[in-house]
Automatic annotation (TrEMBL):
Keywords associated with the record: Kinase, Transferase
Keyword Zinc: no
A GO term, aspect molecular function: kinase activity
Protein known as: GHMP kinase C-terminal domain-containing protein
Length: 347
């Protein structure tokens, strides 16, 4: 256990709801100044994760997982339960019910949000006041980016400071170095190519290892963009500057990752739809993480309707789904949940 969490009164059942996030880009994948990666991201109010943890009936020793969408997700949850048991100590079985999760490997941070929601609910039912950073370390989340972890705690637009490249054995959470509330009027059109998944696992590690060093001049350019355009634009509600800066950031980092993902965008269909949006109105377009989900930031709900119509017009027959979202300026929430019948799921 990374720390010794304080004890709190255990709860019989807890429901945790956490936000999805958009990863808007790395700042320095090469660590040219000694810190590697560094990330910009945004918590959003769509495609969230919601789970409930409940004390199992005393007669049963093994936890039950309900609502998992795939065998892989179920296996991941069972592995996380084992990791939490090892860190927090054995105790009565805790059942897990999955109510809602995003599609995996699409760039929305589903793995991190599931882990953090599960860990938070599990710890509170057991009576441990573990921090999000504690849970992330137990469940080995945040290896490169801290956006999902800080988004779980705070919401909003977030910049993290990456990791110390000179001390790779140090696995502390990338520090939160900026957090801005996202303008309430702005919207983001999300486009998912349901025929694809983004890079993940060993394939992602091999892809990153195959890339050429990231030029220091580009890292300096991205740092300048984030510090002097993205953050001030959000603070001053300056949509045009924000959109231009996001396009610049995304084009720069997309070209770097293009040899691994097949282009600036992982999905040609998503790219066509986003280009149609940008041809009709001011928009900040790009791809979250490895995709395939792409995004178009627009200035208002009305602009989002226009963006959706433009994207759909050029996508007949394409395996695309569309969602209009807003930024979410709060982190995860949790509340007491109802217990089931004492004999439910008895074994």
């Amino acid at each position: 256990m990374p720390t010794s969490p304080a004890r709190i009164s255990p709860s019989s059942a807890i429901t945790v709801e956490s936000p999805a996030r958009l990863h808007l880009g790395f700042i320095d994948p090469n660590g040219s100044l000694g810190r590697v990666f560094g990330s910009v991201g945004l918590a959003i109010d769509a495609h969230g994760t919601r789970i409930t943890a409940r004390q199992a009936p005393a007669s049963r020793r093994k936890a039950i997982v309900e609502g998992a969408t795939t065998d892989t997700q179920r296996e991941r949850i069972e592995r996380h339960i084992e990791q939490l048991e090892a860190a927090l100590g054995k105790g009565p079985a805790i059942d897990i019910e999955i109510h809602e999760t995003p599609r995996a490997h699409t760039g929305l941070g589903s793995g991190t949000q599931l882990a953090l929601a599960l860990g938070t609910a599990f710890a509170r039912v057991r009576g441990h006041e573990a921090t999000t950073a504690d849970i992330a370390k137990i469940l080995t989340r945040g290896a490169r980016s801290g956006i999902g972890i800080h988004g779980f705690d705070h919401g909003g637009l977030i910049v993290d400071g990456g990791r110390d490249a000179r001390n790779p054995s140090i696995t502390t959470l990338p520090p939160l170095i900026a957090r801005q509330p996202f303008p309430e009027a702005w919207r983001v059109l999300l486009i998912d190519d349901t025929s694809r998944e983004g890079l993940h696992g060993d394939e992602e590690k091999r892809g990153l290892a195959s890339l050429a060093p990231f030029p220091a001049a580009l890292a300096a350019h991205l740092s300048h963009l984030v510090l002097m355009r993205v953050l001030p634009a959000v603070a001053e509600n300056d949509f045009d500057t924000y959109a231009e800066a996001i396009c610049d950031l995304q084009q720069t980092i997309g070209e770097y990752f293009a040899p691994v993902q097949g282009g600036v965008f992982a999905s040609p269909a998503v790219a066509r739809a986003l280009e149609a949006v940008a041809a009709e109105q001011k928009a900040g377009i790009g791809q979250t993480s490895w995709g395939p989900v792409g995004f178009a930031f627009v200035a208002s709900a009305l602009d989002a309707e226009r963006a959706l119509a433009a994207a759909q017009r050029v996508s007949p027959g394409a395996p695309l789904t569309f969602t209009v979202a807003a930024g979410r300026n709060r982190g995860a929430t949790w509340r007491a949940a109802g217990l089931r019948h004492p004999d439910a799921n008895a074994a």
